[in-house]
Design goal:
CATH architecture of the largest domain: Sandwich
CATH class of the largest domain: Mainly Beta
Number of strands: 17
Strand content: over 45%
Distance between the termini: 78 Å
Number of domains: 2
Order of helices and strands: HEEEEHEEEEEEEHEEEEEE
Largest sheet: 9 strands, antiparallel
Helix content: 10-25%
Shape: flat
Radius of gyration: 36 Å
Amino acid sequence: MQGQVRIDEFVFVLLAGIVLILIFIFAWGIPPAEEKAPPVPPPVIGEVPIRAVYEPGVVEIKYALGLDILTSKENVEVAAGLFTSEEISLVATLTEGKLAEVTDAFVVIIVESTNKLKPLIITVNEKEIYRDIPEPGTLLIPVGKDLLKLKNIVTIKTEFPGILKFWQTSKYRLEEAKFGVNIFGPAFKDYEFSLEKYVIKYFKYGRLEYDVVDRIKEKNLIVKINDQQLLKGVQLIGSYERSFGPAYVKEGKNVLSFSAEPGAEYKLKNIVLTIVYERR
Protein backbone atom coordinates (compact mmCIF):
# COMPACT_ATOMS: atom_id res chain seq x y z
CA MET A 1 0.00 0.00 0.00
CA GLN A 2 2.87 2.36 0.76
CA GLY A 3 4.23 1.88 -2.77
CA GLN A 4 0.85 2.62 -4.28
CA VAL A 5 0.60 5.88 -2.28
CA ARG A 6 4.02 7.05 -3.55
CA ILE A 7 3.06 6.41 -7.22
CA ASP A 8 -0.18 8.35 -6.75
CA GLU A 9 1.76 11.24 -5.23
CA PHE A 10 4.17 11.26 -8.18
CA VAL A 11 1.34 11.28 -10.72
CA PHE A 12 -0.34 14.10 -8.83
CA VAL A 13 2.84 16.21 -8.84
CA LEU A 14 3.43 15.54 -12.58
CA LEU A 15 -0.12 16.58 -13.51
CA ALA A 16 0.13 19.68 -11.39
CA GLY A 17 3.35 20.67 -13.19
CA ILE A 18 1.76 20.23 -16.62
CA VAL A 19 -1.23 22.36 -15.58
CA LEU A 20 1.09 25.13 -14.37
CA ILE A 21 3.03 25.09 -17.69
CA LEU A 22 -0.24 25.37 -19.68
CA ILE A 23 -1.41 28.27 -17.49
CA PHE A 24 1.92 30.05 -18.08
CA ILE A 25 1.71 29.60 -21.90
CA PHE A 26 -1.83 30.93 -22.17
CA ALA A 27 -1.12 33.77 -19.77
CA TRP A 28 2.00 35.02 -21.55
CA GLY A 29 1.22 33.89 -25.10
CA ILE A 30 3.32 31.97 -27.57
CA PRO A 31 6.39 33.98 -28.62
CA PRO A 32 6.06 35.16 -32.24
CA ALA A 33 8.16 33.51 -34.93
CA GLU A 34 11.27 35.45 -35.81
CA GLU A 35 10.69 37.54 -38.96
CA LYS A 36 13.33 37.38 -41.67
CA ALA A 37 14.80 40.72 -42.61
CA PRO A 38 14.55 41.66 -46.31
CA PRO A 39 17.76 41.02 -48.26
CA VAL A 40 20.12 43.97 -48.20
CA PRO A 41 21.45 44.90 -51.65
CA PRO A 42 25.23 44.91 -51.92
CA PRO A 43 26.68 48.30 -51.12
CA VAL A 44 27.73 50.66 -53.88
CA ILE A 45 31.50 50.68 -54.03
CA GLY A 46 31.81 53.28 -56.76
CA GLU A 47 30.98 54.31 -60.32
CA VAL A 48 32.66 52.57 -63.24
CA PRO A 49 32.83 54.31 -66.65
CA ILE A 50 33.02 52.25 -69.84
CA ARG A 51 34.13 53.92 -73.07
CA ALA A 52 31.71 52.13 -75.42
CA VAL A 53 32.48 54.22 -78.53
CA TYR A 54 35.59 56.26 -79.33
CA GLU A 55 36.13 57.97 -82.69
CA PRO A 56 38.88 60.62 -82.52
CA GLY A 57 38.98 61.34 -86.27
CA VAL A 58 36.77 63.59 -88.41
CA VAL A 59 33.45 62.00 -89.46
CA GLU A 60 31.29 63.46 -92.25
CA ILE A 61 27.50 63.27 -91.83
CA LYS A 62 25.36 64.42 -94.76
CA TYR A 63 22.18 63.83 -96.73
CA ALA A 64 23.05 62.68 -100.23
CA LEU A 65 22.73 60.12 -103.01
CA GLY A 66 25.32 57.39 -102.77
CA LEU A 67 26.11 53.74 -102.37
CA ASP A 68 27.35 51.63 -99.52
CA ILE A 69 29.20 48.30 -99.86
CA LEU A 70 27.87 46.27 -96.95
CA THR A 71 30.00 43.13 -97.25
CA SER A 72 32.47 41.46 -99.62
CA LYS A 73 34.78 38.46 -100.07
CA GLU A 74 37.86 38.04 -102.26
CA ASN A 75 39.56 35.08 -103.97
CA VAL A 76 36.87 32.51 -103.33
CA GLU A 77 35.49 29.51 -105.22
CA VAL A 78 32.09 27.89 -105.66
CA ALA A 79 31.85 24.28 -106.78
CA ALA A 80 29.40 21.39 -107.02
CA GLY A 81 30.15 17.74 -107.73
CA LEU A 82 29.25 14.28 -106.58
CA PHE A 83 31.40 14.64 -103.46
CA THR A 84 31.91 18.41 -103.48
CA SER A 85 29.68 21.32 -102.49
CA GLU A 86 31.14 24.78 -101.95
CA GLU A 87 29.10 27.95 -101.85
CA ILE A 88 29.58 31.52 -100.65
CA SER A 89 27.39 33.47 -98.23
CA LEU A 90 27.49 37.24 -97.85
CA VAL A 91 25.66 38.45 -94.74
CA ALA A 92 24.72 42.10 -94.21
CA THR A 93 22.52 43.82 -91.63
CA LEU A 94 20.65 47.11 -91.92
CA THR A 95 19.09 49.23 -89.20
CA GLU A 96 15.44 50.17 -89.67
CA GLY A 97 16.45 53.77 -90.28
CA LYS A 98 18.99 52.87 -92.95
CA LEU A 99 16.63 50.43 -94.68
CA ALA A 100 14.08 53.24 -94.98
CA GLU A 101 16.59 55.30 -97.01
CA VAL A 102 17.69 52.47 -99.34
CA THR A 103 16.38 52.73 -102.90
CA ASP A 104 17.64 49.34 -104.10
CA ALA A 105 20.67 47.05 -103.87
CA PHE A 106 23.18 45.21 -106.05
CA VAL A 107 25.52 42.22 -106.18
CA VAL A 108 28.86 42.55 -107.98
CA ILE A 109 30.72 39.40 -109.05
CA ILE A 110 34.13 39.34 -110.74
CA VAL A 111 34.52 35.92 -112.39
CA GLU A 112 38.16 34.95 -112.75
CA SER A 113 37.61 31.55 -114.40
CA THR A 114 35.02 28.79 -114.88
CA ASN A 115 34.71 25.41 -116.61
CA LYS A 116 31.15 26.34 -117.74
CA LEU A 117 29.61 23.01 -116.80
CA LYS A 118 26.64 24.45 -114.93
CA PRO A 119 25.17 27.92 -114.28
CA LEU A 120 26.22 30.27 -111.53
CA ILE A 121 23.25 30.83 -109.20
CA ILE A 122 22.76 33.84 -106.93
CA THR A 123 19.99 34.24 -104.36
CA VAL A 124 19.10 37.07 -101.98
CA ASN A 125 17.16 36.00 -98.91
CA GLU A 126 16.35 32.70 -100.68
CA LYS A 127 14.96 34.48 -103.78
CA GLU A 128 16.85 33.66 -106.99
CA ILE A 129 18.07 36.78 -108.83
CA TYR A 130 20.58 35.25 -111.28
CA ARG A 131 21.07 31.92 -113.08
CA ASP A 132 23.40 31.79 -116.09
CA ILE A 133 26.80 30.63 -117.33
CA PRO A 134 28.85 33.84 -117.46
CA GLU A 135 32.11 34.55 -119.21
CA PRO A 136 35.05 35.67 -117.09
CA GLY A 137 34.58 39.32 -116.22
CA THR A 138 32.37 41.56 -114.07
CA LEU A 139 28.70 40.92 -113.35
CA LEU A 140 26.42 43.60 -111.88
CA ILE A 141 23.10 42.13 -110.74
CA PRO A 142 20.43 44.57 -109.47
CA VAL A 143 18.39 43.68 -106.39
CA GLY A 144 14.96 45.20 -105.79
CA LYS A 145 14.24 46.82 -102.44
CA ASP A 146 11.31 44.45 -101.94
CA LEU A 147 13.81 41.61 -101.41
CA LEU A 148 15.69 43.39 -98.63
CA LYS A 149 15.31 42.80 -94.90
CA LEU A 150 17.06 43.96 -91.74
CA LYS A 151 19.28 40.87 -92.08
CA ASN A 152 20.22 39.92 -95.64
CA ILE A 153 21.92 36.76 -96.88
CA VAL A 154 23.34 36.54 -100.39
CA THR A 155 24.18 32.99 -101.51
CA ILE A 156 26.40 32.23 -104.52
CA LYS A 157 26.55 28.62 -105.74
CA THR A 158 26.48 26.29 -108.74
CA GLU A 159 24.94 22.86 -109.53
CA PHE A 160 26.03 19.23 -109.82
CA PRO A 161 26.72 18.48 -113.53
CA GLY A 162 24.37 15.48 -113.46
CA ILE A 163 24.57 11.69 -113.44
CA LEU A 164 25.91 11.53 -117.00
CA LYS A 165 28.91 13.62 -115.90
CA PHE A 166 29.09 12.41 -112.32
CA TRP A 167 32.87 12.40 -112.34
CA GLN A 168 33.07 16.13 -113.14
CA THR A 169 32.70 19.19 -110.89
CA SER A 170 31.20 22.54 -111.84
CA LYS A 171 33.57 25.33 -110.72
CA TYR A 172 33.68 29.12 -110.60
CA ARG A 173 36.74 30.97 -109.37
CA LEU A 174 35.75 34.48 -108.19
CA GLU A 175 38.18 37.34 -107.78
CA GLU A 176 35.62 39.25 -105.73
CA ALA A 177 31.98 39.08 -104.62
CA LYS A 178 30.30 42.03 -102.91
CA PHE A 179 26.85 43.18 -101.85
CA GLY A 180 25.83 46.83 -101.51
CA VAL A 181 22.91 49.25 -101.42
CA ASN A 182 22.04 52.51 -103.14
CA ILE A 183 20.93 55.24 -100.74
CA PHE A 184 19.10 58.49 -101.14
CA GLY A 185 18.98 60.02 -97.73
CA PRO A 186 21.19 60.51 -94.72
CA ALA A 187 24.71 59.13 -94.89
CA PHE A 188 24.41 57.18 -91.65
CA LYS A 189 27.44 56.68 -89.47
CA ASP A 190 26.76 53.74 -87.19
CA TYR A 191 28.82 52.56 -84.23
CA GLU A 192 28.08 49.19 -82.64
CA PHE A 193 28.87 48.46 -79.00
CA SER A 194 28.02 45.62 -76.64
CA LEU A 195 26.94 45.74 -72.98
CA GLU A 196 27.03 42.91 -70.44
CA LYS A 197 24.05 41.94 -68.28
CA TYR A 198 25.58 43.32 -65.06
CA VAL A 199 26.20 46.72 -66.72
CA ILE A 200 22.50 47.00 -67.62
CA LYS A 201 21.45 45.82 -64.15
CA TYR A 202 23.53 48.47 -62.37
CA PHE A 203 23.34 51.13 -65.12
CA LYS A 204 23.45 54.68 -63.77
CA TYR A 205 23.69 56.96 -66.81
CA GLY A 206 25.18 57.31 -70.28
CA ARG A 207 26.94 60.30 -71.81
CA LEU A 208 27.60 61.22 -75.46
CA GLU A 209 30.25 63.82 -76.28
CA TYR A 210 31.40 65.18 -79.66
CA ASP A 211 32.81 68.27 -81.36
CA VAL A 212 31.23 69.96 -84.39
CA VAL A 213 34.19 71.23 -86.44
CA ASP A 214 32.27 72.29 -89.58
CA ARG A 215 28.71 72.44 -90.98
CA ILE A 216 26.76 73.50 -94.06
CA LYS A 217 23.25 75.05 -93.74
CA GLU A 218 21.16 75.34 -90.60
CA LYS A 219 19.63 71.88 -90.77
CA ASN A 220 19.19 69.31 -88.06
CA LEU A 221 21.75 66.76 -86.96
CA ILE A 222 20.02 63.55 -85.79
CA VAL A 223 21.48 61.17 -83.20
CA LYS A 224 19.85 57.86 -82.24
CA ILE A 225 20.67 54.94 -79.96
CA ASN A 226 18.96 51.70 -80.98
CA ASP A 227 16.60 53.69 -83.25
CA GLN A 228 15.50 55.86 -80.31
CA GLN A 229 16.06 59.55 -80.94
CA LEU A 230 18.54 61.09 -78.53
CA LEU A 231 19.04 64.41 -80.34
CA LYS A 232 17.55 66.32 -83.27
CA GLY A 233 18.61 69.92 -83.72
CA VAL A 234 20.78 72.49 -85.43
CA GLN A 235 24.34 72.31 -84.09
CA LEU A 236 26.77 75.22 -84.11
CA ILE A 237 30.53 74.76 -84.25
CA GLY A 238 31.64 73.76 -80.76
CA SER A 239 31.61 70.94 -78.21
CA TYR A 240 28.47 69.09 -77.14
CA GLU A 241 27.46 66.70 -74.37
CA ARG A 242 24.19 64.79 -73.90
CA SER A 243 23.25 62.38 -71.08
CA PHE A 244 20.69 59.57 -71.33
CA GLY A 245 19.00 56.96 -69.16
CA PRO A 246 18.68 53.16 -69.19
CA ALA A 247 15.74 53.10 -71.65
CA TYR A 248 18.14 53.74 -74.54
CA VAL A 249 20.38 50.70 -74.07
CA LYS A 250 20.00 46.93 -73.71
CA GLU A 251 22.00 43.83 -72.95
CA GLY A 252 24.07 42.67 -75.93
CA LYS A 253 24.43 44.59 -79.20
CA ASN A 254 23.61 48.33 -79.31
CA VAL A 255 23.92 50.87 -82.15
CA LEU A 256 24.79 54.58 -81.97
CA SER A 257 23.75 56.30 -85.21
CA PHE A 258 24.38 59.79 -86.67
CA SER A 259 22.48 61.24 -89.65
CA ALA A 260 21.26 64.59 -90.99
CA GLU A 261 18.28 66.23 -92.70
CA PRO A 262 18.19 67.00 -96.47
CA GLY A 263 20.73 69.68 -97.39
CA ALA A 264 22.66 69.32 -94.15
CA GLU A 265 26.29 68.42 -93.81
CA TYR A 266 28.21 68.13 -90.55
CA LYS A 267 31.78 67.25 -89.71
CA LEU A 268 32.20 65.76 -86.25
CA LYS A 269 35.29 64.88 -84.27
CA ASN A 270 36.16 63.25 -80.93
CA ILE A 271 32.98 61.20 -80.64
CA VAL A 272 32.90 59.49 -77.24
CA LEU A 273 30.06 57.42 -75.79
CA THR A 274 30.51 56.55 -72.12
CA ILE A 275 28.36 54.17 -70.06
CA VAL A 276 28.55 54.51 -66.27
CA TYR A 277 27.38 51.76 -63.92
CA GLU A 278 27.62 51.22 -60.16
CA ARG A 279 30.15 48.69 -58.91
CA ARG A 280 28.66 46.56 -56.12
